[in-house]
Model the fold of this input.
Amino acid sequence: MIDIGVGVSLEKNEIAASEEAVRQAKSRKASKEKIDLVLTFSTADFSSVALIKHLNTFLGDVPIFGSNSSALITEKGIFNHGLVVMLIGFPEGVYFNTAYTKTNEFATSTAAGEDLGEKLLYGFQNVSRTLSFLLFDRMEESGAQFMTGLQSKLGRSFPCIGASISNPALAGRDSLFFNTTILNNACIGILWGGKFNFGLGLKHGWKPLGKPHTITQAYDNIIVSIDDQPAIGIYEEYLNYDISRLKKEFKKLSILYPFGMRVPGQQEYLLRNVTSIGDDGSLVCRGNVQTGSSVRLMISTKETCLEATREALNEAKTHLASQSYRFHKNDSSKMAIIFNSFPRAVSLRREIKKELELIRETLDPETPIIGVYTHGELAPLLSTSYHGQAYFQNQTISILIIEA
Done:
């Protein structure tokens, strides 16, 4: 069974928070000494350098993997300040490898993805591979190219699940944690295999508004024109706002009305947040866009967001149950990792507490939970089969249940 202990600290300084969270997590493990992997998330008001230094002091030479974030998701609640640490001891037969790549050290994002894929595969030649788990910083413009490179090494149908922690409001204070290192403009990854199962649910809760339109000019993450008109026109038309009002209120409007793009062969819309308006009326998105894509404005309610959470939970549990034949019920245990898009929290407001209650009530009572609010999620669109290209998505909730 996976031996897991989770600790949460709301202490104000890095030393006290690290010590308390590690002490709590160790007290909840069957074996306090066997720690194979540490997952950890903190809020950005901590010094990342000091935090990693003290975590390494209290834990010793153990792989550390995580990031800071806008807010933490734990079994105890949702916190805008704090540190959560999950200490994991894997049973015999579970294998993993961790690696990172700095995307700005390569000529192309595709080459950076290939580099990470090669590093993750090291030592996995004779071991069955199950899942890659990724955290990104600053990948809005080149995420698709990076994933092309990564999946060229891992396999085009290999499941890749993860999230971007890059928060525009943090102005570069967001960081990835990898062992003793703090990273920016990077991707860190875990490759798991062996006697290891997972279930994923990914939903957003946004519904299409109005008629479909066509992106007639775009490059990277910028939409230049829609229906041969400046891209901003779609917001002017539907909201009946002039350009000055749109620019003034756009931060809120882009959360309430993201774009939904159709992907050939997929039923789910791929969401894109718009982060800014160009002087020429172009729209800058969090994630790649393509010329020729069919696009619609999207809208949600608190009820549709909560229903999406229920669907994601049911998807994750259903797929995991289909894999559990590999284990005897009493010989396995589970853990849950939650990536919840920060704009969804803005939409849900006070209902985020109800969402967490729903997650806790639906998962098995003994399942430890760790998670963060993110600014872009990575997964295949068809989560029930997990085959095919992994897409960067916006405003979704991603629920990953791991069993070993």
Observations:
- The radius of gyration is 21 Å.
- The chain has a mean pLDDT of 89.
- Residues 302-323 form the longest helix (22 residues).
